[in-house]
Amino acid sequence: MTASTTIDKGDSPNGDRSSASVLHQKVLGSRRLSNYWWATVVTLGATGFLLAGISSYLKINLLLVTDPTQLVFVPQGLVMGLYGTAGVLLSFYLWLMIFLDVGGGYNDFNQETGTLKIFRWGFPGKNRRIEIDARIRDVQSVRLEIKEGLNPRRAVYLRLKGRRDIPLTRVGQPLSLTEIETKGAELARFLQVPLEGL
Known about the structure:
This protein is an alpha+beta fold.
């Protein structure tokens, strides 16, 4: 989910810093190990398919492990080239999301100033920087959403007066029940608001 940080007490093993007045939580975006893995796998596979299609057309072997020059260009080489092109476009998208760190950011809660700030990196464009500023006194509660099943969902939300619930956790891999309960309880205790959804 997030790595909480309270300033002035030093860093904890998970990167959290915390003091009596400031809670800073880092949110992991697209720069996850699983995203690096899939981007690499898709890039290698797509490059192989694309080179096989080109080798089939040119009758020149561009691959080290096999000889695609024996393939008939229409339909086999053409189809492999199309799959390779689609895969290269997908891998470009995956690497771009990793480079831009879409979804990454932080949650900052400051008791001294009475403010909170939620920041996330978005997709390129005018809304690339997503920032939500509010007053801590407008926080009604911290809500946990836990859904099990085929598509499990575990998230922490911040409920503010006059606004929709704001998600505070990362997108993608669901957090463990222990981790989400700990994060929710820590935030509710820090903000001195009720914890809902347990």
